[in-house]
Specification:
- Helices cover about 15% and strands about 35% of the residues.
- The chain contains 3 helices and 10 strands.
- It has helices at about 15-20, 35-40, 90-100, and strands at about 1-5, 25-30, 50-55, 65-70, 75-80, 105, 115-120, 120-125, 135-145, 145-155.
- The protein has a 5-stranded mixed sheet, with helices on one face. Strands 4-5-6-8-7 form a 5-stranded mixed sheet, covered by helices on one side.
- The chain starts with a strand and ends with a strand.
Length: about 160
């Protein structure tokens, strides 16, 4: 299964739409915060996709949770914006929370810096920021052969 992972669109619903259109095989879209309104704007155009999202520190009036879990094909995914775990100062809090949730994958945003990492059985991915200059998003593929993360840069940004 392919999952598109986006974060920090900050009002750039058009880039979120472009990313979804560029990944037609993605069945799930996970938005990691700072773009709740962007998801609301784009979601009706993609009724065949499942959308999961959490609130970011700039989603001021959001009623969304700060963390989420999704399990697919036996793989548990823990996702959050990251600000409540202090990800700008390090990943210890995020990794600890993901391990408490018994996740194999931890997805986070907030820093606007794309990152893929693997630490002792835990895949980490920050898709970067999808809004603005140097926009990027993430792809998470879960296959019988394993888990693959990939950061994709939007052309023209």
């Amino acid at each position: 299964m392919r999952i598109l992972v986006a974060s920090d669109t900050h009002g750039d619903a058009a880039s979120l739409r472009r990313a979804i259109l560029a990944q037609p095989q993605a069945q799930v879209v996970i938005h990691l915060g700072d773009g709740e309104e962007d998801v609301a704007q784009v979601k009706p155009s993609f009724p065949d996709k499942m959308f999961l999202q959490v609130r970011g520190n700039c989603d001021w009036t959001s009623q969304l949770s700060s963390v989420g879990e999704y399990e697919v094909e036996g793989v548990k995914i823990f996702y959050t914006h990251g600000h409540i775990y202090g990800v700008k100062s390090g990943d210890y809090g995020l990794i600890s929370a993901a391990r408490e949730h018994r996740a194999q994958v931890a997805l986070f945003g907030h820093t606007h810096l794309a990152r893929e990492d693997y630490e002792d059985g835990l895949y980490l991915m920050n898709p970067g920021r999808l809004g603005g200059w140097e926009a990027s998003y993430g792809i998470l593929d879960i296959t019988p052969q394993g888990i693959v993360t990939n950061v994709v840069r939007l052309e023209g940004h």
